[in-house]
Write a sequence for this structure.
């Protein structure tokens, strides 16, 4: 287990189409990352009717992708998640790393 969260952003043609969230850090940071990620997934489904491919394993690692990533509203939600993750990284750089 790593000492920090790894958030990898997946892009295709400059558009975000998914994320991997792995490992753990400070429990407060983990909670914030979990809330942002699950809210994005729930918003994609409830507000846009987009069901992402989602895998959450026993250790809490999250892998998700969306097929309809060219949807402008989906991009807004995914970019909002990225912004939130990077904001957490700015404040807690020892506990989370965001990668492209």
């Amino acid at each position: 287990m790593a000492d920090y969260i790894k958030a990898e952003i997946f892009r295709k043609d400059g558009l975000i189409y998914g994320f991997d969230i792995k490992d753990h850090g400070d429990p407060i940071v983990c909670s914030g990352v979990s809330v942002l990620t699950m809210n994005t997934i729930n918003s994609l489904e409830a507000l846009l009717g987009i069901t992402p491919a989602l895998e959450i394993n026993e250790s809490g690692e999250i892998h998700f992708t969306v097929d309809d990533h060219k949807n402008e509203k989906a991009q807004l939600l995914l970019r909002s998640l990225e912004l939130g993750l990077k904001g957490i990284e700015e404040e807690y750089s020892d506990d989370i790393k965001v990668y492209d």
Notes: The beta strands are 5-12, 15-22, 53-56, 62-65, 96-99.
